[in-house]
Design brief:
Number of strands: 7
Order of helices and strands: EEEHEEEE
Strand content: 35-45%
Strand order of the largest sheet: 4-5-6-7
Number of domains: 1
Radius of gyration: 15 Å
Structural class: mainly beta
Number of helices: 1
Helix content: under 10%
Largest sheet: 4 strands, antiparallel
């Protein structure tokens, strides 16, 4: 499930940010896994200029639109391994659910 909430993260911006996060809920309604975008800020590879703009403006810095857990497939590339998560927004990211680390990122 994709969600967002306002957070104060001074390491990113002195202004409140809108942070996207992913939660996995089991059939009993219990949260079994969580992934918060702000915790991976350093993995995005932003330029110094981009980090300064995010810091100066806060707000909806990651802007995630959708997520998809990748199904079993015949693609040989490990980034498309079953269970990795495709995150779409202004750009896309793929990360490993097992580690939470960003595997690949593309921007327009």
């Amino acid at each position: 499930m994709l969600a967002c909430r306002y957070r104060n993260v001074p390491e990113i911006s002195p202004i409140t940010i809108l942070d996207d996060y992913i939660i996995e809920v089991n059939p009993q309604g219990e949260i079994v896994w969580e992934w918060y975008t702000y915790e991976h800020f350093g993995e995005f590879g932003f330029s110094d200029e981009a980090e300064e703009l995010i810091s100066a403006h806060g707000g909806d810095w990651a802007h995630t639109n959708s997520i998809q857990s990748l199904p079993e497939n015949s693609l040989g590339d490990p980034k498309f391994k079953k269970g990795n998560i495709l995150v779409r927004g202004e750009h896309y990211r793929i990360f490993r659910q097992s580690t939470g680390g960003i595997f690949e990122q593309r921007t327009p």
